[in-house]
Amino acid sequence: MRHFQLKGHIATLGAVILFGLMSPMCKLAMQHGAIDGLLLAFFRVSGAAVLFWFLSLFMAREPIARKDWLPLVGMSLCGMVINQFLYVLGIQHTAPTNACVVGTATPVMTFILAALFLHHRVTLLRVGGFLLASVGALVLILGSGGGLSGHPVGDALCLLSQFSAACYFVFFGGVLRRYHPVTIMKWLFLIASALTVLPMGSRLAALPDATLSTHEMLAVVYVVIGGSFFSYLLLIVGQQRLAPPTVAAYNYVQPIIAAAVGIVLGLDIITWQKCLSLLLIASGVLLISKSPAKVQQQKN
C-alpha cells in the first residue's frame, strides 16, 4: 500500500511541475508575437488530441453511450475550449506567477457551484474560506499594474478560465466516472479541436509566414507534449492512488515553479501582492477543505 501511494505522490508531483512550467513556457512561446494566445491554445488542444488518440490505439476500444454525447460536448466546451483558450489568453496579458496563483482559486469556485447546484452543505468555515480566497484574488488583480508584475485583464481572463474549469468538475462528474480517463480525454480534445479549427483558419493560414525562434518552437512543443499530454497522464495516475484533498494540496507547488522559471527567463518578478494573494487563497481553500460535507451524487 505504501509503495502504491508513493507512486501516486511521485506522479502527482510530476504533474504539478509540468503544469507549473506551462505559464512561463506559454509566455515564452508568445514573447515576440509570431504566435498569439488563441493559436497557441489551438495547438495545445489539437496536439493533445492526436497524442491521446494515438495512445488509445494500444487500449481496448470503449464505446460512448448515446446519452453521453451531449454532456461530452459540454465538458469539452468548459474543460478544454473556454478553460484553455481563456487561460492561454490570460497568460499572454499577465505574468506567469499571476496565472498560477489565480489557478489556486478553482477549488473555491467548485465549492460555490457545488453549494448552489449539488446541495453541498454550507458552513461558516466554508464561507470564511470563500471570503479569504476572494480577497486574495482581488489583491492579485488590483495589485497588477502591468509589465512583469502582471495585468488586471490577464488576471481576470485566467480567473474566468478557472470558473469554466469549476463548471467542468461540478456538472459532469457522472460522465467522468463512467469511462476510462484516456477515453474521456481523447474525445474531449478531439471535440475541442473540431469546435475551434474553423475560427483558427486565418491564423493557421498565416502561420507559414511567421518566423519562430528555436526557443519559441521548443516552448510550443512543451505546451503540447509536456504541459498537456504527459501532465494529464501523470495526474490520472495520482488521482487513482491518492485522496482528492492530497492531490489538491499539490496545486500550491505550481506558483513556486512558475515564479522560479519565470524569474530565470526574465518573464516574471515577485511582488508582495503575489505572495499575499497566494497566502490568502491557500488559507481559504484550506478552510473549505477542512469542513467535510456530503454532496448529492449527480446523475448525468
**C-alpha geometry:** globular
Strand count = 0
Strand content: under 5%
Radius of gyration (CA) equals 19 Å
Q: What is the end-to-end distance?
A: 33 Å
Indicate the low-confidence ranges by residue numbers: 293-300
Judged by helices, strands and strand pairing, the structural class is mainly alpha
**How many distinct helices?**
14
Task: Give the ordered list of helices and strands.
Answer: HHHHHHHHHHHHHH
- Mean pLDDT over all positions: 80
Number of domains: 1
What about the largest sheet? none
Percent of residues in helical segments? over 70%
Please render the helix and strand layout as text.
Blueprint: H1 2-29, H2 37-56, H3 69-93, H4 96-103, H5 106-117, H6 124-142, H7 152-171, H8 173-178, H9 181-196, H10 201-206, H11 214-241, H12 244-249, H13 253-264, H14 272-289
What does this structure look like?
- The chain has 300 residues and is mainly alpha-helical.
- The chain has one domain.
- 75% of the residues lie in helices and 0% in strands.
- Helix 2 packs across helix 3, helix 2 crosses helix 11 and helix 5 packs across helix 6.
- The two termini are 33 Å apart.
- The C terminus is likely disordered.
Question: What labels describe this entry?
Answer:
mainly alpha; 300 residues
